[in-house]
Amino acid sequence: MMRTEGSPVEATGLERAAGMFERQADGCAELGSSLYAALLRRAAEDVRAGGPCAAAVAGYERAPGPDAIALRLLGGVHALVLTGRAPELAAHYPSAGGSWQPDLLDACWTAFREAVAAELPWVRDWMTRPPQTNEVGRANLLITGLLRAGTLASGSPLPVRLFELGSSAGLNLRPELFRYTAPGYAWGDPDSPVHLEDAWRGAVPTWLAEAAQQRPTLQVVERRGCDLTPIDPLTDDGALALRAYVWADQPARFARLSGALRLASERPAGVERLGAAQFLRGVSVREGTLTVVWHSIMKQYVPAAEWAEVETELERLAAESGPEAPFAHVAFEPERVGRSFPFRASVRVGRQERQVLAEAYPHGLPAWAM
Fold it and tell me: Which residues sit opposite 346 in a β-bridge?
């Protein structure tokens, strides 16, 4: 049953949801979204008070992932803004041409709360959708892994076959079409509509700068991905979903997404509705090409039993590979280090030892050398 304003909060349900909102607020603040951090803290209070946000999340308090319901609520409301259904709130959202001013938080929050109350069926429908940002910035780690893999796998450049697990809309299946820059480092088409600026914090690894000079282009001859709930970026609904899950006060991310959507319309890439293990069973190495399997921040959403099957398939591909048909596994995932979970990019070529290449923020920018 949905709750209405003034109804009590169950400690095992909506109190848990309020705590999840607060934890995600901390994450948004850390990653540069003061707008979402402020709104989520107010939303947590509203949940505890039994307000519209409590009604929005009722029944979804145990959705998978510690931040799932918070990001779903934000995405649903952002979609209202982007479609013109919440004009008062749009005035505070930079993504819709508005202006976020912390001293106007009260007005922004009132507009947010009223939008949730007025469009409750819409927002609750978005609560059923898993957040899929298809973060374009993570291509920064993919291209790093691809350049390193090319150096380790062969003395001469080989065409690349790229396979992505957990692809969402498949936007990162076109990494060679993006532009990457940092002091002392530039790679990719200078005229690309996707420009990943300030790609590195501090010095760029020497091997990467050298690889970028030696291999100024990559030829990708096959690009395919898989996802349990793929998004078609060429449809209005698909593009809206991708835009809605980008945080509204981060215009650089919006610009990268817009450029990636343009490239998606020009360079098709297939994303199959399959689990990761089943998808990999249909992949094999091919002579004269570098076969690459890549994934970013998706492993945590795959059941342990299925991930064991994924690892079996990765080992099969490594065993089948050789100098004439090399294979590389590139990953950008959180890893336990003591009590922390830094996000690390790594590469393993064939049966060589896995190399950790860099750490980065979850959105992929900037990266820094280990």
Answer: 331, 356
Nearest alpha-carbon partner for 248 in 119, 114, 73: 73
Count of C-beta atoms within a 10 Å radius of residue 103: 6
The strand pair at 367-369 and 355-360 is best described as antiparallel
Q: What's the pLDDT tens digit per position in 183-223?
A: 999 999 999 999 999 999 999 999 999 999 999 999 999 99
Q: Starting at the edge strand that comes first in sequence, how are the strands of the sheet with 220-226 ordered?
A: 270-272, 220-226, 160-165, 290-296, 327-334, 343-349, 355-360, 367-369
Rounded distance between C-alpha atoms, residue 260 and residue 321, angstroms: 32
What global pTM score does this model have?
0.89
CA dihedral 31, 276, 288, 191 (to 10 degrees): -30
- What gap in Å lies between CA 227 and CA 130, rounded to an integer? 12
Provide the pLDDT for residue 63. Answer: 60
53: tokens are 């946000």
Q: Strand 343-349 to strand 355-360: parallel, antiparallel, or no bridges (unpaired)?
A: antiparallel
In the 8-state DSSP scheme, what is residue 204?
P
What is the C-alpha to C-alpha distance for residues 107 and 170, in angstroms, rounded to an integer?
37
β-pairing, 179-182 with 185-188? antiparallel
Q: What is the DSSP letter of 166?
A: S
Please write the tens of the pLDDT for every residue from 250-262: 999 999 999 999 9
Positive or negative, the CA dihedral 232, 233, 235, 237 is positive
- Measured CA to CA, the distance from residue 74 to residue 67 in angstroms comes to 11
Sequence-ordered list of residues with C-beta below 8 angstroms from that of 360, at least 6 positions apart, any chain: 140, 141, 332, 343, 345, 366, 367, 368
Which tokens sit at 299?
A: 């492993």
CA distance 370 to 144: 13
Beta bridge partners of 345: 332, 358
Read off the DSSP letter of residue 325: B
Using only C-alpha atoms, the chain has a radius of gyration, in whole angstroms, of 21
Of 221, 224, 311, 220, the residue nearest 272 (C-alpha): 224
